[in-house]
Amino acid sequence: MKLTRLGACGATTLALVAACAGTVTPAGAASGSCTARYEPKTYPSGYVVDTVYYCDSWQKAPVYGRTLVTQHSWMYAGSNWYTCQRRDIGHQNPVTYNADGSANRNDWWLFTLADESVEGGPGYWGYLPATYVVQGDNWQPVPHVPDC
Q: Order of strands, edge to edge, in the sheet holding 108-113?
């Protein structure tokens, strides 16, 4: 899922990409990895993780519950943190598309606390599809983010 910067409509920042007319296209670097940061986060269960992984997302992305079937939240575009990722062969990510029309497909999901619920309130903990993350390739885990 090598994502390329959108050349049409002159977008130069992640925020501008979503405003472009036509098909929304990933605006990230063609390569790179997520950045680890010591930033403790507490899961709803009380478990604490000390390190999170910041990765870039190129547009507002859906966040799903534990079963990966129901979307309950949204994550805004930009640099966002994730605690881990998991693969679920039975639940493919929504397909996203690059500027050249090629598709991004995956079955890896990143665990995070979303920005906003679908009802407009605070977001919930859940899984974001890897197809919305700039780093990574089709059918591969996002580099440098540990398994859940």
A: 84-87, 108-113, 125-129, 61-64, 71-75, 116-117
Q: Encoding tokens for residue 42?
A: 């507490």
Q: Write down the residue that tokens 């604490």 correspond to.
A: 48
Domain range for residue 46?
Answer: 8-132
Per residue in 97-127, pLDDT (tens digit) is 988 999 999 999 999 999 999 999 999 999 9
Q: Please give the structure tokens belonging to residue 125.
A: 């903990």
Partnered with residue 86 across adjacent β-strands are 109
In a domain, 27, yes or no: yes
The phi and psi torsions of 73 (rounded to 5 degrees) equal -150, 175
Please give the Cα distance from 74 to 76 (Å, whole number).
Answer: 6
